[in-house]
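yo

u said u wanted the structure for the complex thing, so here. seqs first:
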Amino acid sequence: MPTIFIDGQELQVKDGENVLEACLNAGLDLPYFCWHPAMGSIGSCRQCALVQYQNEDDSRGRIIMGCMTPVTEGARFSLQGDKAKEFREAVVESLMLNHPHDCPVCAEGGECHLQDMTVMVGHSQRRYTGQKNTYRNQYLGPLIHHEMNRCITCYRCERYYKDYAGGKDLGAQASHDHLYFGRHEEGVLESEFSGNLVEVCPTGVFTDKPFLKQYSRKWDLQSAPSICTGCAVGCNIAPGERYGKLKRVHNRYNHEVNGYFLCDRGRFGSGYVNSDARLDYAGIKKPDDSFMAVHQQQALETAAGWIKGKKVAAIGSPRASLEANYLLREMVGAKNFAAGFSDTEAPLMSAVALILKTTKAQIPSIKKIEAADAILVLGEDVTNTAPRVALALRQSVRNKSFELAAQMGLPQWQDAAVRNLAQDQRSPMIIVSAMDTKLDDVASECISLAPDQIADLTVAIVAALANQASGNNEQANQIAQILQSAKNPLIVTGSSMLNLGIIDGAVAIAEALCTDDTSAMLSVCVPESNSIGAALLRSGSDDAIGLTLSDLVNNAPDVLLVMENDLERRLSPDEMHKLMGKGTKVISMDMLENPTLGASDMVLPAASYAESQGSLVNMEGRAQRYFPVFEPTAERLPSWQWLLKLGAITGHKALSKLNHFDEVVAACANSQAEFTDLARAAPDNSFRDRGLKIPRQTHRYSGRTAMNAGVSVHEPQQPHDTESPLAYSMEGLNRDQPSSLTPFVWSPGWNSNQALQKFQAEVDGPLKGGTAGQHLVVSSTMGYTAISSLSKGASQQVKSTAVKMQPHQWQLVPVHRVHGSDELSVNTDEIAELAGCAFVALGAVVAEKLAVTDGDGVVLGCGDTQLSLEVKVLRRVAKNCVGYSAGYKETLALQPATLVTLTKDAKWQRREPQLIASDRTIPDPIILDPNIAKGGSAHV
Amino acid sequence: MEKVLTRNIGFDQKPTDLKAYEANGGYRGLRKALADMSPKDCQDLISDSKLRGRGGAGFPTGMKWSFVPGEDKCGPGHKYLVCNADEMEPGTFKDRLLMECDPHQLIEGMILAAYTIGADISYVFIRGEYVLAIQRLRDALAECYAAGLLGDNVLGSGYKLDMYVHPSAGRYICGEETALINALEGKRANPRAKPPFPQVSGLWGRPTIVNNVETLCNIPHIIDRGAEWFKSLGIGEDAGTKLFGVSGKVNNPGCWELPMGTPIREIIEVHAGGMQEGYQLKGFLPGGGSTDFLTHEHLDLAMDYNVIGAAGSRMGTGTMIILDDRTCPVGMVLNLIRFFAHESCGFCTPCREGLPWTRQVLQDIEDGRGQPEDLETLAYQVNYIGALGNTHCALAPGAMEPLQSALKYFYDDFKQHISSGRCPYH
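structre next:
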């Protein structure tokens, strides 16, 4: 630990860090722009200047950049001396020459790093009398708003977008004081991670476009710690609300999970929370199939009447909280409970749960994935199924460059130098998939194989690892050799191909790589935010297998409870019809109108994740708690509350004893061994910081008593949160609580998200409040045994059909899309726009044979079904395979591995190219949200 | 005086072909080195010769080469030699003469340099506007490949070297060696942070030496005739000869090869023929647009790196620009700052924003809109962006050199612009 001196003060600093990091770690305020903790230093903005002295006698010193200067034993610096301060002020003055004075109308205002730094250096007088440079803004798609005049040329956007996230279509253009950061022409940003530009940009060049349409200042947002429900990664998010609307989602730092970055599905995919398709009231179906709105109590009493003395079964949900699923299981008994997976998916999820519990391999956190030095991806297009993991994989292939840099004594944070040194040398990443993946550009090798062939390859790799290579599978031998020579090999797979053989094979490879000293890493991607939670629940019940959906279809109960699950996505139309048929009373609770609700006899409006609390178990088995950002409006209730109320009214033995969320957590924790530590995911309701709850509102939160004055002058009381340690209030501290209770970051003088460094124990390190979440599943490390009885699903089906392949037939392979494949986020306008329509993905050869190109139509024939779909031509597609858009409404009926025919659709009308229209619809200023007025008038 | 670098250059400025070059002792140095000298011997000889870089900074060439790591340190792979022929310093036209008229001299120097540092690939990164030089270099390269002077087996020695001519897309900043390397890689021509220096991690992340044209042209002669001979050429403290140039209102503007240490007065009054009639010398930039003004009092100084440095300027490229008494010094500095502001790569804040601000203030003064406080602003800018270390590279500090010295020597002119509200020279 070297000692350095800053303004005479002695500081013990970390070896290898730079002076800027050392200052920030010591709690000193040193302004910066271009440096970013995750992206290192380039020395462009010259803002973090200090004066360095040769020795004690040197009184002159020279200006150095904190971010570019490594700490050395005994080095002496001045941070507060006149020379350093004057220089830092001069830099801000320079940046301000062309920066517009538009803070009052800028979306960044109030959380602008440039504002903060300007105040910090004390620059207040303008001396420059020349003209400001102006630029044309670009249309960058529905998510990101571009305002180039505000640019201070810190290069962060380009470095993030291109270097960190692997984007190709945004960068620095032009030169001198007319640099331009944008695309080569207007158009939708291609990266799945473009939203992070909003947080990476230190000022208002890139702002959140959907947020602009319903804008509020950061200080006016009410926020709560939350977890993204977009996929199974479990990124920590900080959603913000005002006027009863979810306004935006910001990243919430979790050192081991998402770090500083989210994907665009997570950041922008919550628009459905504000959707008009949300259910407001409970409803009972009338004979004419329409619903009659009823009060909560009436609905509960009716439901109790239906349930009493009847055979009741329930279907839970992999996208509902663990607590809600647990209550549902308790209500009907484990024997009558289905976790809500489709029959194809259920065995895969059971297998993944078993893997987490037994594997010898190490299940890495997302952060740990970045440490992998050889990666084998099996069957998964990670960017589209677990996007944040893909971003981590992009960093892990850089380990080769860090190795080269270390040989030269170059620290990792010397970002430009490390990249220049390594150029395109990367750690090996082999991708075996049926089609293009978005990581192909950084892969050392891409192998295109049909899903069952991927499974076969895994067997060959395992054999090669055991030195049983027969020598005829050179590919497997090479892969085995690459993995064996790595220090931290990582196998990434997942359930997106719905092929158990691939998953089993991936585990076998990972376990074969585990020796006494090395533990290979294994990451298994699963589709939904609580897939693992639901899978654990199911396998932990009395009946190890539990009910499948087809069990219910074939043996219909009298009453069926469906919670937060659109069964249309899991059942064929015939099965759906049979299950929801006349004989069964179906009670469904969900958020958005969907076919399942439409077919139910009673619907109950459920709260979204933003209005409720619960725990989600992510792909690595980490339980994380989300808290309500705002109170549910209308008659909506969180599912767990619906179930408690239903339990109480029916006099359910166990449920009627539970009244509060913490009691549910405790009961759930006691119900099975895997959930013992569930309560540790976050502090309970009794937690207080210096006697106070944690405020959801900033201390500058404005208009609290007047917000609804346009509706009613009678000032409503603030809601009381009786279930969590968070308060709907400005009172209290947001400083020293556990990280799972941090709703937003703010520190005096640090109004932007850069205030995060005040919450971190060290720069880019864990938070002072610890890392949020709790690992529920700890592997017994006895080793995973593939249970063949579980694999009655997909993999064998594939193998049997593969044999019967005829010419002019293709095997269907699901293609996942970050925008479009997910059930909920696609109900957000912007995401729906990006998702486009359902498609068929073809290789160039097949496309040529059918005489079609991108945007043409083909008719996909599958038995009696004929589907007309848009064509996407991919770069590489495995032989005899054709992709279909997975999770899109139009293609829900398609099953993987089915054999289909393809013909050109002569009548197909090509879609018009995307209009560049959004720039013209800059939102009107919002005085009062019209929806509040609408909702309000109903009550008057 | 013996002509060394320009011995093959006549008044007609015709190119010297391979035959003519070899007839006048060309490739003798290369043959000698490949036959009798190890790379280490060459390295030591160049170090002994006290050759200093002719591109402007005057860094000792032998020392620069010595930083290239051996294969034990940098691992197997390519090493590169790059000739910096991106001659864009205002007022400088010496390298062009060498390349257009004697391309083989440069090629021989490059082969020798590459041999010394163990490079197997070399590039001539040349200013795009030098169309004639590009053509003549390419013709010469074709001759070399045909004659076995380049390729897989240079003169049968087993040494392998390829050479390419790469015309620049055109930025002044490409003359900065790391910006040049970025441009060569197809990236934005932004300078790189140092360390690491290109000698260790340069082109494509591999050890790379970047030398100026004139520097490399000296190498064959040193190898052929020895360090002592080379040192004896200089008449001051520096070794060798140098191409000196003069532009401005002199009777005979041009470029001449003269011994290092030739007095400034001799260059201007003898070789450049003195001032044109009706013009008086007011000051001069001794080594291109990014060097400080010197004036009458410096005319008897020797053109040596340290002597000019001690006088508060830099020898730079050794090509002088004369300021006469009928040209506005403010306008001249404005013209230079306008150039530098436009040529800033835009990477670091002080240069990107400070130079246009300086340009704007100077424009105001020149146009008669200047205010007394503008002089404070200019002094402030000199202090803010003129210090090495405040900026990412040396462009902005270089750009500030004519301004800071103009403020020192021609302060009255600035004041007069402001007080009279117009340019007194118009």
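The domain at 18-233 of chain B is CATH 3.40.50.11540 (Rossmann fold). The first helix of chain B runs from residue 18 to 23.
cya
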